[in-house]
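Technical annex, item 7. During the second reporting period the consortium partners agreed on a shared format for inverse folding records so that results from different sites could be compared directly. Each record opens with the tokenized structure and is followed by the designed sequence. A conforming record, contributed by the partner at site C, is shown below for reference.
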């Protein structure tokens, strides 16, 4: 059981998202005032090295979710993991004291809306939360989710110049140690942002879109160096979290949620090297959301088809991407309604198992009623069961039924029972 003990995100916190059908259980009402935060007691003695203030969720101010669930769950022989969502694309700076001080600095010197992995207060905040959880509660494990990507990936995904981070003093110091020219990195990112913006306006460069993209990377290799710096900083925090938890209790299992971009973007996939992650991972939740993958990937591919792949028809570049990603799914115009297949789940699981090695448990995330549009692919009991069987056929040691109980229909949830090997 994964308890959403820390989340400001509607994807894993609160009831069903507004505008989508309520499930066939629980309170039949939306909670539009959900704010989120920490749903466990904050033991102040662990937070002396961070200035980040009260992050307790006001939604249920008297609830300690661990005290509520741990005892009954353990008596039933169930393991309990803390599900922690680092995803900062929410109201955190508005509500949490001192949080604005740890935000990234963008290429123009402005505070971004996302926190910096290299800011000491931000790192110590997370390490304090982990110490608090592992010392204060008899948790069996910690699952940490960070649905973020580096500045280049953010721009390719459509975020634009606002995602070019981080150029704070801490990141600049690391760049100096690595011999990366900060000013050239900035110039390269601005040039890349200008190129992508022009591409989205349909302004074709003389030598085409992909050639111009590659030429910018050759002219400004600092762009890739900065992307590597950002990704290394994210994974360095993973390593620190793993080390703190294991120093307190070796038996606590620590693992990571690897977001859906890993199935869609070869650029993001290259940054998530399971072999390198293995030394600081007991398990990895590989997102293999088969049903919502259809509309999600269609939107992602059309974004690339308007920029770096705009020289070719979207249907032609789709075949290329399918080959690179190792999937074989529906044509582009059918994807939102078709979703992806159970075979995708098997392939993605097998790839992760081969990459991470025998020590790390691969636990694919299986899509159960993750919201899609009314005219898009919808989960079915048959499709859900097929995805679960495919995960085990690919070598999974277990599955994580995703994303949250408050959006799942019971027929789709119960369809997993007979699909799980005895």
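Designed sequence (site C submission):
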């Amino acid at each position: 059981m994964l308890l959403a003990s820390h989340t400001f995100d509607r994807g894993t916190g609160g009831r069903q998202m507004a505008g989508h059908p309520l499930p066939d259980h629980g309170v039949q009402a939306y909670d539009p005032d959900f704010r989120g935060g920490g749903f466990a007691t904050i033991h102040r003695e662990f937070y002396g090295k961070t200035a980040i203030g009260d992050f307790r969720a006001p939604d249920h101010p008297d609830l300690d979710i661990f005290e509520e669930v741990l005892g009954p769950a353990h008596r039933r022989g169930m393991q309990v993991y803390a599900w922690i969502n680092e995803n900062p694309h929410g109201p955190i700076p508005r509500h949490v004291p001192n949080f604005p001080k740890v935000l990234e600095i963008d290429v123009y010197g402005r505070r971004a809306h996302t926190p910096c992995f290299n800011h000491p207060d931000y790192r110590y905040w997370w390490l304090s939360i982990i110490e608090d959880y592992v010392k204060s509660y008899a948790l069996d494990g910690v699952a940490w989710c960070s649905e973020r990507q580096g500045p280049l990936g953010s721009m390719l995904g459509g975020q634009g110049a606002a995602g070019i981070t981080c150029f704070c003093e801490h990141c600049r110091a690391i760049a100096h140690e690595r011999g990366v020219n900060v000013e050239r990195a900035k110039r390269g990112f601005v040039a890349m942002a200008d190129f992508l913006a022009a591409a989205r306006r349909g302004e074709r460069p003389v030598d085409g879109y992909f050639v111009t993209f590659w030429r910018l990377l050759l002219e400004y290799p600092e762009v890739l160096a900065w992307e590597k710096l950002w990704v290394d900083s994210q994974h360095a925090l993973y390593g620190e979290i793993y080390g703190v938890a294991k120093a307190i209790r070796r038996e606590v299992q620590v693992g990571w949620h690897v977001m859906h971009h890993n199935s869609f973007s070869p650029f993001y996939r290259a940054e998530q090297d399971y072999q390198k992650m293995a030394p600081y991972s007991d398990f990895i939740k590989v997102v293999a959301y088969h049903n919502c993958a259809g509309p999600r990937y269609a939107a992602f591919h059309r974004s690339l088809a308007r920029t770096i792949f705009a020289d070719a028809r979207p249907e032609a570049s789709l075949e290329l991407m399918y080959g690179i990603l190792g999937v074989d799914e529906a044509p582009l115009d059918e994807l939102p309604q078709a979703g992806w297949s159970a075979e995708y789940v098997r392939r993605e699981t097998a790839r992760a198992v081969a990459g991470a090695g025998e020590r790390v448990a691969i636990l694919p995330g299986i899509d159960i009623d993750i919201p899609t549009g009314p005219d898009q692919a919808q989960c079915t009991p048959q499709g859900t069961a097929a995805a679960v069987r495919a995960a085990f056929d690919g070598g999974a040691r277990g599955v994580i039924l995703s994303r949250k109980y408050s959006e799942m229909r019971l027929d789709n949830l119960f369809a997993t029972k007979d699909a799980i090997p005895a």
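The mean pLDDT is 96. The domain at 2-148+235-414 is CATH 3.20.20 (TIM Barrel). All partners now use this format for quarterly exchanges.
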